[in-house]
Amino acid sequence: MTILEGAEFPRNAWYVGAWDYEVTRQPMQRWLLNEPLVFYRSEQGNPVVLDNRCPHRYAPLSSGVLIGDSIQCGYHGWEFGPNGACTCVPGMDRPIKKAQVRSYPAIERWGWIYIWMGEPDKADETLLPSFHFMTDPAWVGKGEVMHVKAGYNLIRDNLLDLTHAKFVHKSTLATDHVTDFPVQIVEEDGRIYIRRNMVDVAQASPLFKTSGGFKGRVDHHQNFIFEPPNNVLVQTTVKSAASEDEDNAVAFKVANALVPESYTSTHYFWFIMRDFKLDDAEVTEWAFKANQGAFLEDKEIIEQQQLLWESAVGNIAIPYMQDKGVVWANQIVASMVDAEKSPE
Predict the structure, then answer these.
(1) What architecture is the 19-127 domain classified under in CATH?
(2) What global pTM score does this model have?
């Protein structure tokens, strides 16, 4: 198959595989990076992630049951431990040593189960993205996982260039001034920082007007942190402009983990959090629904974009000044992919 520009993914990285509540003592299947995985928890509660293909006849292990910490294939009863080794074959007095399924390093952090899809000896916990805000008591929020029929690169592009909000999100995130202010971009420690400061603009976007009660002019600050290959933290702060008598301020953060299911489909994990009205469950639900609604607007156009991009294989997209962050991010990810294809 033809892989579209930017759709390839490096394997030596941490990818969110599931929300913590999704992984239980009932085996669950999910495809990541074109690979079928089975998730479950050990009797001690630790997440276990294995290749979902039983090496006997390639039946899905996820259709089976757990026997202690091992998973029993639901087709012929072969069993495999958390390390992927075969532990039992019915009718035989010992397991088959060469019957091994791949076991993936897994870490549970901030409500998400992270999977290292690449070389196991390169799995480094310090390479996890900086999403610790998700469990910081100074912030509160809610999130979900959404399935998108488009490559993760198109969602990444969407998040790193919010000028589209003026046209796609007219009732939620739009501000007429977003296209008037250029972005500043800095790369530090392997991350890309993108900033847009809209100072003394006429009004806040509908989302912030409602949440902050703004009536006059505002300063609207957008900050994006891209942690390759697929993590984007969006930080937005809106406060009353210096020219106004009111003194309001609100801030939101949205953690976004864009996890390739395949080259043309994505598991989009996101979590929106705020630093005000921390005990108000109604505000939590309102913010969740607002962000969900905005991304459903994105989803509609991105899925169409995927189909049209597939129809234009060989054509090159035409960037402009607002795409600086998008282009830079794509170059970094491409270099990661190339490095894995040509190891030293």
Answers:
(1) 3-layer Sandwich (2.102)
(2) 0.93
